[in-house]
Amino acid sequence: MARRWWLVAGALALSIACDDNPGTDAGPGMDAGPDEDAATDTDGGAMDLAIPGLDGEVEVIIDDRGMPHIYATTVHDLMVVEGYLMSRDRFIQMEFLRRNTLGRLAEVFAALDPSLANTDIDQRFFAFERQGQAIYDSLPADDLTRQVAEAFVEGINYYIDSVVMQDDYFPPRGLDAFNAALVSPNFGHWRPADIFALARFQAWNLSYDAGADVNNTRALLGVRDAFDPADADERIAARAGVFGDFWSVVQARRTYTREGWNDGTTHAFVPPFGIPAPAHPLRDFSIESVEGGARFFDRLQANPWMHRNPHYGSNSWVVHGSTTASGNAILSNDPHLALYAPPVWWYVHLNTERMGGERSLDAQGIAFAGLPGVVLGYNRNLAWSATTTGYDVTDVYAEEVTFRNDGDASTPNWTPVSVTFMGADVDLVPLDEEILVSGGETQHFTIYQVPHHGRIIPDSYVTPEMTDPPNGAMATGSGMSVRYTGDDVSNELAFFVGLLEASTVQEGFDAAQVFEVGAQNFSFADSTGAIGWTTHARIPQRACNFWLDAQGVPVIDPSSDLPAAPPFVLPGTGDYEWGDDLDTRFVPHDQNPARGYIATANQDNVGVTDDGDPCNDGHYIGAGFAVGYRHGRIVQRLDELMTRGDITPEDMMGLQHETRSSLGEGMRDAFLASLDHALGDTSDDAALAAVVSGAGGTTGLSDVRDRLAAWTFATPHGVGATDANVIADSVATTIFNVMVAHLSQLTFDDEETRIGRGMGSSETGRLLEWMLDTPAEQMALPLHTFRASYMGVTDWNDSVLWDDLGTDTLLETRDERVTRAALMALEWLTTELGADRDAWRWGQLHALRFQQLVPAAIDSGVVSIPPRGDASLPYGYPRDGDYGAVDVLNYSLTNPNGIRSATNSGARGGPSQRLVVEMTADGPQPRNSLPGGQSEDPDSPHHADEAALWIANEQPMLYFQQADIDAHVESTMRFVPGT
Description:
Strand order of the largest sheet: 1-2-31-3-4-8-9-10-11-18-19-21
CATH class of the domain at 5-205 and 968-978: Mainly Alpha
Largest sheet: 12 strands, mixed
Low-confidence stretches: 1-44, 266-273
Radius of gyration: 29 Å
């Protein structure tokens, strides 16, 4: 096909089509320029398209929220049209996501950014394309999931041929970078295997934690090296147990989805303390491999498509019909993902029932951009939701690698050949990869796979140290491999296809039997009032030796210089291998519990962390769970609502919008006590006296104290507010959060610098709460850095972490640190927001912009919501809530600049939908809003309409019943078989 020369020039010069929008004649949400012979607009806003291969006619109603309701006689036709319509709204997002997943960005976009070749090289390590092809090849031709993928791709490819590849097609305004793909000879069609690759990527995104294992190991070894319990310096020795405080597995709010395992046990066995002598000790492993692996995962974080944010989470709960006003079960779900524009989800309604078609499908909900069907949603009888479980399904292995010198003595070129396993050499499997570079030279490289574990992280190689090795010389070095359940063939897409026609909670459970990778808390509510929850997935069982002694000091295997537990890098020589998967009888699940509800929020499901040791329970399932702020509040509110027995959907929406400060409840009173001390007699605390007698003294402290004392723990953004109570709570929220961020730096920076790794915000908030507890409460935790006496103070009775290791003349105390944090907060806020404290509204810092994810050649940010440069919303939309709220919009607690910085660049995590659906005998009554809109085109009326609802905490009814759909028609389309 001939492409206009000026489009070619525009793509290369990065300047054409940035502000033009030639498709102004297209209807709402439509791209300009489909083949005139293939599509005909009619006077009523309808469109007829002829698509080759359709089994029959397909009717589409697009409602006034941009949702397509697709009516067909076959599943094949449903999927073809879904693929076409999704592409019409989101093709550029889909194409960038697909190419990033497959590691194929450079072959069409290298002219925009040559470094994309390096991004592709990193992506190929995860082998999503290989996995997708393997899954597709494993399915017989008559497998329904395979047929769904094939039909969906038919629709995408028809859109490519009939729209994108036409000479009069232009990308939407602000997405002009896509021009580079259009002029590349490597741009082309999707393949069915790509669908399974994208599905595996989504599973990976919700379950893969190799990076956490590597960083946990860095931290544990950092603590071991920095704080020797036998050090002559009491300050150092007293911190030997700091790992157990910084990275405790105990939740801040100790609430669980169910109490104990489904086999009735909570602590079925307690293994003997210590690490058994390994049968196959690891002898030649360099800790430098761990640092190299950390660099790889840190680099991955810079890729916005691969960024893993520990602040993200999800909420879901289902309430039994016996507890509601209507007698119907209600399901609520707000999965927390990165909030980009366009959003990750796309509304769709799939129906074969109305036209008397096969399987009588009638399902509605949201789909991932690029994947078919309905991922989260409901049909006429059953609703389903998801949150991530945090189960441990990934292990990183330290490998003894044998290398061969393929160079000469002066310039050795070490090639990995084998690893040591069970005392024998096992040959590595080379995986040859090729990176096509648009406008450049093709790059070739090899990834090496350990047959019994997985691929070796490229940056983790430490080559042999040998002087003048001859060609062909063999020597030992090290590397790290990753074993992950997602590297085995399985078909999670079949679960979601099965849900389309499941009608009861039990049938939802039955559908989940094929779900193996990407463990989720799947909750169900059906039209009989029943509720259920399953976490069905593969959870490999393996040895877990707890990594701390009774004093919290790291326990290291002396033969390997590594811990001996799955949350860390494990010796790969044969002593820490996977056994069978956890029997599905014991994988946590529940149906119709007596408490009347089931709630999940990424926390520990069954209490394995409650005693601080996840290794001493009947089954090992993991240690990396959310700390429980959201779940604790959800359980508290649901328990309160249960006493009424007349729960309504409005109650459920109100709980989704809950923003009361959990951190404030945990810390405010201790802050007041410290400030009272600072404002009173400080003669008993030399460090505190030095602060209040210094420059500025106690200026402003009384005001801070009074504002915090009057705080109701409501967290309104306050921007534009005139109500005095709202303003007071908003200012108090601002002061409190900036104090916490400064207190974090003052308290932990000295230890974290020595360790070489810092805590995340959740761990920081939890530890500050614990340290602000009373001595009795700290001892009960136990807090490993609590000391009754310290540095000559016989009645210290507090954590030693308050003391600053960087000072020798003063012993810093809790009250000194809190007071100094308050003074620093006053100074910082005056600089940032001005001297008028009543103007310190929380929403000036705590704001949200849905950032444009697909790059623009000229970075206009017009796809962002609100667009960058919007003078009325310079930092985005001001938002209520603070860290750990149910209605989450988290930020960094470890740096005051991190509160505001997320409003300027990058993406925050938050509810990616707000679904509340009541399951009646006549069908679902769904309410929802998305953080964005159906269309990626900033000129579409459905680009930001959902975002306006989401920002206002509005969740209007969606249209499921035919009468409601017919009453809200925006446009219609008809698809017919073509030739």
